[in-house]
Design goal:
Elements lengths: L1 H21 L6 E5 L1 H6 L3 E6 L2 E6 L1 H7 L1 H16 L4 E2 L1 H10 L6 E2 L7 E2 L2 H9 L3 E12 L2 E12 L5 E8 L8 H10 L2 H18 L1 E9 L10 E2 L2 E2 H12 L6 E5 L4 E8 L11 H13 L7 E6 L3 E6 L3
Parallel strand pairs: 1-4, 1-7, 10-16
Antiparallel strand pairs: 2-3, 5-6, 7-8, 8-9, 10-14, 11-12, 13-14, 15-16
Length: 317
């Protein structure tokens, strides 16, 4: 009887684990036209990045002027939704971004430290999608026949690392519309593409997502990262905090001087205890508060670049 009961509990446990896995959260995705497509179709603009002119896609104008863009993204959104992947609407995210109060393009301090956010970084912050899916397509015409070449790139929106890719060409057709041609081209590849997306998200769920944290100092602050507290340098104190608060203690100290320290591949939880998504700012906020308290009592400023990079500047607010 005891053996039967044990087997029943074992079966129930396996079923519970399987059900939990089946109900695991899927990554949120935002489909965007690629830089290549925007440049090819004339939807680019320039912005000033600390004195350097940088070309970026003009998504707003692309959505306002190109009817094919809306149609194609709607088709890809539909294919992803059918497979259970939650989607963020890019056009809505752009409107939300524009409705916010005026933002400073650059946050500066007495020391000149600062972070510039491009419009693309700001868009990512508003959308808060786990994965950006870049779409490039070309409509080919050979006599009366038409076909579509397409490329999908899945990018981690926190690190910009490519985590999945798919490319293909649909069969030529005499009469099919662009969305139909694209669907026919994508159907042979999209399931494998989604498997790669989910695999990456599962890894993040288990091991945390990657972010970058920089700690700098203002010129006006007399201290530095070599200043000792209870016999330990401040840089070592911060490293100990990172080890204690990152997922499984995983991070890399890429650079360190008396004036700055750079942490890359910092793994942070996807969600807090309330189920709210955590970004680099949310994680760095805890470090910011830690440094404000005794025995350090260091005033500091927290700035952001997109979702995945945070900078703490020591010495002032």
């Amino acid at each position: 009887m005891r053996k039967i009961t044990t087997k029943i509990f074992a079966i129930l446990f396996i079923l519970t684990v399987s059900l939990s896995h089946a109900q695991a959260k899927k990554p949120t995705i935002m489909v965007v036209p690629s830089d290549v497509w925007c440049n090819k179709n004339g939807y680019m603009m320039e912005f000033n990045n600390q004195g350097t002119k940088v070309k970026i896609p003009d998504y707003k104008r692309a959505f306002q002027e190109n009817a094919d863009l809306l149609t194609v993204i709607s088709k890809i959104n539909g294919l992803m939704a059918e497979r259970g992947f939650p989607l963020k609407n890019m056009e809505s995210a752009i409107k939300t971004l524009e409705s916010e109060s005026a933002e400073n393009a650059m946050l500066t301090s007495k020391s000149g430290a600062g972070v510039v956010e491009s419009p693309v970084d700001k868009l990512k912050k508003v959308a808060k999608a786990d994965i950006i899916m870049q779409l490039t397509w070309t409509l080919n015409t050979a006599g009366p026949k038409k076909s579509v070449n397409f490329t999908l790139q899945g990018l981690d929106s926190y690190t910009d690392k490519e985590i999945a890719t798919a490319t293909g060409t649909g069969a030529p057709s005499f009469s099919a519309e662009l969305p139909v041609l694209l669907e026919e081209s994508a159907l042979a590849h999209i399931d494998n593409f989604n498997v790669s997306l989910q695999k990456h998200f599962d890894d993040m769920f288990e091991n945390g997502r990657e972010i970058i944290i920089r700690v700098k100092k203002f010129d006006s602050w007399t201290g530095d990262l070599e200043k000792e507290y209870d016999g330990k340098e401040l840089s070592s104190v911060i490293e100990d905090w990172m080890a204690a608060n990152s997922v499984k203690g995983r991070f890399s100290t890429s650079d360190a001087t008396e004036n700055m320290i750079l942490f890359e591949q910092v793994r942070i939880p996807l969600y807090d205890t309330t189920g709210k998504a955590i970004d680099a700012r949310g994680f760095a906020k805890s470090l910011q508060e830690f440094l404000k308290k005794a025995p350090y009592t260091i005033p500091n400023k927290l700035t952001m670049k997109g979702l995945g990079q945070a900078v703490i500047v020591l010495g002032e607010k």
